[in-house]
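Quick one, tokens below:
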């Protein structure tokens, strides 16, 4: 685990939507450089930037055409190096998005792989025996190339799966993980990682990290593969950080990732916290003021994961990401404050999605952009001020529309408005930086959580964190040592005396034990 993660709050940037400095309607590296001070001032000291490589953008850049070249629209490799350098000067870190599972169908490897004659790249992708051999377990595409076979896809049809081999072999065209051609794919991936680390990035968020080896239900071979890669990278680049999109911390941290995200998958305990809308449209999120939520299923899973992964790495909570509707779709400002305050006081490494600090809306009804589909509304340009396109771009055709300047929320106004969500986010992050107990490694134990009840109270080292998102006042007993009279952070009305916690409607507080 890298030392610098202990006190890190990440800021996720979807580069096409952050700040456009040359008026072409698309955000760029220079725009991010311009806003480094803004991000640092908010308290975030690291950035995860979504894919910025050459791409036809059928999936917003998760369809890479050239792994070693930046997309022209964002800038050159040298501009990206400048971004790394500027960030480092400000003692900030920046990780790139690594897409190991698939490429664009326009990648030179795939073009070669599609040739009818066998060549060095034929097995870089997964082809069935011949065109008529069409299995129905994974997804395949057929008849679009001269190669006599179906190719497996990892996501959209334009994203052929790279071949790292099969764990269980059920057909003769499936190669074992240690086949020289599959090993070559793995080595190619390591070279890509080293290329960007040498240019100055601080690590990677790894897309669909669990997807590499096929027919590997228990992920045994996928974990072994990652163990090999993470060990090599960590050895050669001791400060590099690897964050997995896996949402299974025991597996991900068990094979050398430093951080794994908890993602909002239906049915997970985590899902019950923020975006849990039932079939009848009722908001069952724990953070809704309706008070119909339940934190116990989350806590049950989380405590187990935390115990099983202690000392191996961190679990990461996100406010949102580019794949998920912003919480502001269902939660109002006060609800968001309590939800974020919780995320930012849990152990591990938190990630704040750009614009969430001002409660940017999820924009409904947009036509899909670059493979965004239902995710498009979460990817709209950052709303900086009341100028044209909310200060994002001077273009007549911005990447996606912003809200109406002056009518929709923007940074300029939220920075000034007393008690804004932005102010609160800044304050709670400052608190996290001030108290080591609130940081990644600080201990965590639950003091109060009951099925279908509020509040939720937990201890971080010497601090007590109290959370009541519901609109009801609640009173419970908690077994804690005497705390100082004044809280170190508070939303709403809260008192904690003589082991009695009284929490007003929609409140949150942190107390320090004497
Ligand atoms: C997960 C990424 O977060 C998502 O945006 C992308 O479309 C898929 N992986 C495919 O790469
Ligand atoms: Ca631009």
């Amino acid at each position: 685990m890298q030392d610098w993660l202990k006190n890190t709050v990440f800021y996720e940037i979807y580069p096409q939507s952050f700040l456009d400095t040359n008026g072409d309607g698309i955000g760029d590296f220079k725009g991010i450089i311009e806003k480094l001070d803004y991000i640092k001032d908010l308290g975030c000291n690291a950035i995860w930037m979504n894919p910025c490589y050459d791409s036809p953008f059928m999936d917003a850049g998760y369809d890479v055409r050239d792994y070693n070249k930046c997309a022209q629209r964002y800038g050159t490799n040298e501009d990206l190096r400048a971004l790394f350098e500027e960030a480092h000067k400000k003692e900030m870190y920046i990780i790139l998005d690594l897409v190991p599972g698939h490429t664009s169908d326009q990648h030179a490897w795939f073009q070669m792989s599609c040739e009818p004659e066998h060549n060095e790249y034929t097995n870089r992708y997964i082809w069935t025996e011949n065109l008529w051999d069409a299995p129905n377990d994974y997804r395949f595409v057929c008849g679009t190339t001269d190669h006599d076979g179906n190719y497996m896809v990892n996501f959209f049809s334009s994203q052929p799966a790279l071949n790292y081999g099969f764990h269980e072999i059920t057909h003769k065209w499936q190669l074992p993980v240690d086949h020289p051609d599959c090993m070559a794919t793995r080595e190619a991936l390591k070279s890509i990682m080293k290329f960007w680390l040498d240019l100055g990035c601080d690590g990677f968020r790894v897309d669909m990290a669990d997807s590499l080896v096929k027919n590997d239900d228990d992920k045994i071979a996928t974990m072994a593969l990652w163990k090999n890669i993470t060990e090599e990278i960590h050895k050669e680049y001791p400060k590099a950080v690897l964050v997995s999109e896996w949402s299974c911390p025991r597996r991900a941290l068990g094979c050398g990732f430093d951080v794994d995200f908890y993602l909002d998958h239906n049915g997970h305990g985590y899902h019950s916290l923020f975006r849990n809308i039932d079939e009848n449209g009722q908001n069952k999120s724990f953070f809704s003021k309706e008070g119909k939520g339940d934190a116990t299923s989350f806590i049950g899973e989380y405590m187990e994961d935390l115990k099983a992964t202690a000392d191996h790495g961190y679990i990461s909570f996100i406010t949102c990401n580019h794949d998920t509707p912003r919480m502001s779709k269902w939660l109002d400002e006060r609800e968001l404050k309590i939800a974020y305050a919780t995320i930012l006081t849990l152990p591990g490494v938190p990630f704040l999605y750009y614009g969430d600090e001002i409660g940017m809306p999820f924009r409904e009804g947009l036509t899909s952009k670059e493979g965004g589909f239902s995710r498009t509304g979460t990817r709209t340009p950052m709303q900086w001020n009341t100028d044209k396109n909310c200060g994002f771009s001077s273009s007549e055709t911005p990447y996606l529309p912003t809200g109406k300047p002056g009518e929709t929320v923007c940074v300029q106004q939220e920075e000034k408005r007393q008690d804004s969500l932005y102010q609160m986010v800044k304050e709670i992050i400052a608190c996290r930086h001030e108290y080591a107990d609130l940081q990644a490694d600080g201990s965590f134990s639950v003091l109060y959580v009951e099925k279908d009840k509020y509040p939720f109270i937990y201890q971080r080292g010497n601090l007590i964190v109290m959370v009541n998102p519901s609109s009801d006042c609640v009173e419970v007993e908690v077994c804690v040592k005497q705390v100082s009279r004044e809280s170190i952070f508070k939303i709403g009305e809260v008192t904690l005396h003589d082991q009695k916690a009284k929490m007003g409607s929609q409140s949150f507080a942190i107390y320090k034990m004497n």
